[in-house]
């Protein structure tokens, strides 16, 4: 029997373990999560040294059946705004930048191979946000989140 992996942070759901393990294999090791930050050790490809990175968590857009993805808006230590997302291939492929999909065909083939082997697949992607774009989004997001309307989830999407 294989020895259980030890994780430096509490995982709220058993499905997150594969992401943590894969991230570690790709030289990203999570070591701290608070209500407002996430931190990890990252291998700098230029120097070959591990460096610590912390990201301020600005918004979390939880997974739901209509969005079919989980997204987080974070701010880097240098102020850059990033939107990493993970979700169903049908939803994520539809949101890819159309001119930047050099690997889309090959990735779709891999996803189909995994699905044919009855393995669950998720797509990970991110994009950088402009500050004005984030400000507008955040105003709408806050308004929708504070709404008591039945359409709150639709507004957030």
In short:
By secondary structure, this protein is an alpha+beta fold. Helix content is 31%, strand content 29%.
Low-confidence stretches: 1-5
CATH fold assignment: Calcium-transporting ATPase, cytoplasmic domain N
Give me the count of strands. 6
Structural class: alpha+beta
- CATH level 1 name: Alpha Beta
Would you list the SSEs in sequence order as H and E? HEEEEEHHEHH
Q: Which geometry do the CA atoms define? A: globular
Content of β-strand: 25-35%
**N/C terminus separation:** 43 Å
Q: Which CATH architecture would you pick?
A: 3-Layer(aba) Sandwich
List keywords for this structure.
157 residues, alpha+beta, Calcium-transporting ATPase, cytoplasmic domain N, 6-stranded antiparallel beta sheet, 31% helix
Q: Can you walk me through this structure?
A:
GO terms for molecular function: ATPase-coupled intramembrane lipid transporter activity; nucleotide binding. InterPro entries: ATPase_P-typ_cyto_dom_N. One of its GO terms (biological process) is phospholipid translocation. There is one protein chain. The protein contains five helices and six strands. The chain starts with 15 loop residues before the first helix and ends with a helix. The longest helix has 15 residues. A six-stranded antiparallel β-sheet has the order 1-2-3-4-5-6. With 157 residues, it is an alpha+beta fold. It has a single domain, classed as Calcium-transporting ATPase, cytoplasmic domain N, CATH 3.40.1110.
């Amino acid at each position: 029997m294989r020895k259980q992996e030890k994780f430096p942070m509490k995982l709220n759901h058993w499905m997150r373990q594969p992401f943590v393990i894969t991230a570690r294999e790709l030289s990203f090791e999570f070591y701290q999560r608070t209500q407002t930050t996430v931190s990890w050790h990252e291998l700098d490809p230029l120097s070959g040294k591990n460096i610590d990175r912390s990201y301020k968590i600005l918004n979390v857009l939880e997974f739901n059946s209509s969005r079919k993805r989980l997204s987080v808006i974070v701010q880097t230590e240098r102020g850059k705004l990033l939107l990493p997302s993970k979700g169903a291939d049908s939803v994520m492929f539809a949101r890819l930048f159309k001119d930047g999909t050099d690997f889309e065909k090959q990735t779709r083939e891999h996803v189909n191979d995994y699905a044919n082997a009855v393995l669950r697949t998720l797509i990970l992607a991110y994009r950088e946000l402009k500050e004005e774009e984030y400000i507008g989004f955040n105003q709408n997001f806050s308004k929708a989140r504070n709404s008591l309307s039945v359409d709150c989830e639709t507004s957030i999407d």
